Structures are given as C-alpha cells and as structure tokens.
Amino acid sequence: MTLELATAGESHGPALVAIVSGLPAGLVLEKDAIDADLRRRQQGYGRSPRQQIETDEVEVLSGLRHGRTLGTPLALVVRNRDHENWTWGMSPWPPEGEPVGKGVKPVTLPRPGHADLAGVQKYGLADVRDALERASARHTAVYVAAGSVAKALLDELGIEVVGEALAEAGADPAAIDAARADRDTLGGRVEVRARGVPPGLGSYARREDRLDARLAAAVMGIQAVKGVEMGDGFALAGLRGSEAHDEIGTDKRRTSNRAGGIEAGVSNGEEIVVRAAMKPLPTLMKPLGSVDLATGEAATALVERSDVSAVEALAVVAEAAVAWELARVAREKFGGDALADFVRAWRAYLERIS
Ligand code: EPS
Fold first, then answer.
1. At CB < 8 A and 24+ separation, what contacts does 5-10 make?
2. Average pLDDT rounded to a whole number, residues 224-229
3. d(CA 141, ligand 1 centre) in Å
4. What is the pLDDT of residues 56-112, one digit of tens each?
5. 141 lines ligand 1 (CB under 6 A)
6. Nearest to residue 15, comparing CAs of 114, 151, 145, 105?
7. DSSP state of 280
8. What is the distance in A from the centroid of ligand 1 to the CA of 11?
9. Is 114 helix (H, G, I), strand (E, B) or coil?
10. Which residues contact 182 (CB under 8 A, 6 or more apart)?
11. CB burial string 32-48: b at 16+ within 10 A, e below
12. What is the pLDDT of residue 304?
C-alpha cells in the first residue's frame, strides 16, 4: 500500500489537476485547511502581479463524501483564473474566431535557466510556450493541495511538517526591492522540519527505499531547486567524526541532531530537517543573451511578467513535498484500508519499539 500522485495542468490553461490514490477511508479533510495552504503559497514578498489575479482554492471532484475520504482516488482541481485572459492562446482545442488575448504569438526567444530551449528541442516544438507552460512553477499549487491532504494523514500519527524561508536575501523585502529596481531576481534557501516522526521510516535495504533519497528527490523535483541537504548536510563534510555524529542516550534519544533525523536512510526519531537551495528565477526584466529560434540570430531572452523572488512560496511547496513523501512511507509501513487500521498499526509499532 502506498500513496500515488498524478498531476496535470499548464500555467495559463483552464486548471491544475491532481489525483491522489492510496488514501485510507475515513480521513477527515477540511477545505479551509487546504485553501489556507494554497493561500500561504501565494503569499510572500516579491511575487508577480499574477498572484493578484489568482485566489487559489481547491475543488474536489471525487474520492470524498461529506468531508471523509472513501479510500478511492481523490481528484483535486485548482482553477487558473488568469485563463480567462488566455482562452484563445491556451485553448485545449483548435481555437475559434480571431486571435485575441494573451499567448497568441509564438514565443521564439528561450530564457537561459528556464525549460524553454531544452523543451522545444526535446519535444520538437515550434513555440516555446508549449514547453514553458507546464515547466512553470504555477503547478506547484496542486502539489500544495496534495501535500495538505498528506499533512491531514500525518496529523493522525502526531506528525507535524513545517517549512520556512531562511532569513536571507530572497526572503528580505529590502533586498527584493533592490533586485526589482535593478530588474533582477533572487533565490534563497528554505528549511522544512518534521516533528513526531517515529524511528524506522524508510530503509537501508535498497537505494530507492532510503528516506533521505526519497525526500531529496521530492524536494529536488520542485522548480528552481538546485541543492538539497539533510540536517547539517554539506557542513558535515568539514568535520571530524567525533564532531559530526549524534550520541545515543539510554532513552535511545540523541543529544544533538546533526543527521537531521535520518541515519542510513531510516528515520531515527529525531526531528527531520531538510534544506533546499533555490536558484534566482530565470525570467529577467533585463534579459540575458539568447538566440531567436525563428531566425537563428543573436537576441535577448523573452521578457514576461514574473516573480522577483519566490523563496517564501518554495517553503510552502517544500513543506508539501516532505509531507507527501513522509505520508507515503507511513502508508507503506502501516498500511490499512480504513484509517483506524492505519492508526492501530502505528500504535502497535510504537508499543513494540518502546
Ligand atoms: C512562473 C511565472 C509566473 C509566476 C508563476 C511561475 O507566472 P506568470 O507568467 O503567469 O506571471 O507567477 O507562478 C505562479 C503563477 C504561481 O501561482 O506560483 C514560471 O515561469 O515558473
């Protein structure tokens, strides 16, 4: 038994969609809690005017009745309000009538750092828009909705997952204002902490079972993330072994947590700490050098409305990714078709190891 997530959706298409399967029946979901996470993702200083157009909110099409999961696939939808400005340009079917609104002209100026050039080469596209629409970080909205569901499941096991931006330039209004004035962008770092995770989630048996590898893949899979570390991560490389490891007390707890709650790919009962580094966003108002794919001539990259920094949004998205992966390993370990079976298996396990 595991959780699976399938998503679909373009940034300016009609909607973003997620299908979550593998939830137990009987889990109570609250629309307000999911919408609150969607709102958190939209906030943060330095976001683009797009966020004034969108008021993200979850719709549920299946898998839920009267606020309780049915143990069947849960279909989540987040609409793109901005689509009304792109109905011709992003019409799923051949558009009717004269071109009107946004997205009507092909984009031929790929942006360094975005999916634009690789996307058109890989898929044989004539319009960069056909690549950038899906590559856009817009669809992290629906990952956050799925992460919110995962957090509701983890809450049944007393696990809490919280992400926040580190107090660095990408989350500092003054630095963001300065970058905006220079028509530039910023990146930054975020940290996600998961409390209440029992020892024994994940495994050293196979590379793909390792909890740290799974969390790293989940977080690295978020747009613009270029680095992930667990606990003290890269800093551990410069320490001696005597300074780097977390000693074990008679209560089996640790006196420090440099490992970030994971050893040998298995949770050790301490707080799980995952940090991610985000590169500066690649859409620049003062564009970098590129090539016009229509003419082959030197040009500058596409200039589009964009965020100056989305580090605070990344904190919410990374929180969702960590929650999702922890919920997945918990489903694998504790199983159960009914929520009560899942919770009972967790309790029995805690009793055995205590
Ligand atoms: C993004 C470009 C911008 C961001 C977008 C991600 O969108 P637009 O081109 O519509 O202004 O605002 O992020 C979101 C819309 C969002 O909700 O997070 C990109 O190119 O990745």
1. 5/143, 5/146, 5/324, 7/139, 7/142, 7/143, 7/146, 9/78, 9/80, 9/134, 9/138, 9/139, 9/142, 10/90, 10/133, 10/134, 10/136, 10/138, 10/139
2. 98
3. 11
4. 999 999 999 999 999 999 999 999 999 999 999 999 999 999 999 999 999 999 999
5. yes
6. 145
7. P
8. 7
9. coil
10. 286
11. ebbbebbebbbebbbbe
12. 87
307 C-alpha to ligand 1 centroid (Å): 7
Distance CA 166, CA 279 (A): 14
Are residues 132 and 110 in contact, defined by beta-carbon separation less than 8 angstroms? Answer: no
Protein residue with least CA distance to atom 1, ligand 1:
136
Domains identified in the chain and CATH numbers: 4-91+104-353 (3.60.150.10)
Residue at 181: amino acid letter? A
Q: Is the CB of 111 under 6 A from ligand 1?
A: no
Question: Ligand 1 pocket: which of 47, 90, 307 to mutate (most atoms <8 Å of CB)?
Answer: 307
Structure-token pair, residue 168: 């660095």
User: What are the pLDDT digits (tens) for 153-186?
Assistant: 999 999 999 999 999 999 999 999 999 999 999 9
Q: What is the mean pLDDT of residues 278-284?
A: 96
Atom of ligand 1 nearest to the CA of 224: 21
Mean pLDDT estimate for the chain: 97
Distance CA 211, CA 16 (A): 28
Whether the CB of 50 sits within 6 Å of ligand 1: yes
CA-closest residue to ligand 1 atom 20: 136
Per-residue pLDDT tens digits for 309-349: 999 999 999 999 999 999 999 999 999 999 999 999 999 99
The answer to whether the CB of 138 is under 6 A from ligand 1 is: yes
Ligand 1 binding pocket includes 7 (Cβ within 6 Å): no
- The reply to whether ligand 1 has any atom less than 6 angstroms from the CB of 306 is yes
User: Token pair for residue 149?
Assistant: 């569901």
Taking the centre of ligand 1 as the mean of its atom positions, its distance from the CA of residue 296, in whole angstroms, is 27
Nearest ligand 1 atom, CA 136: 21
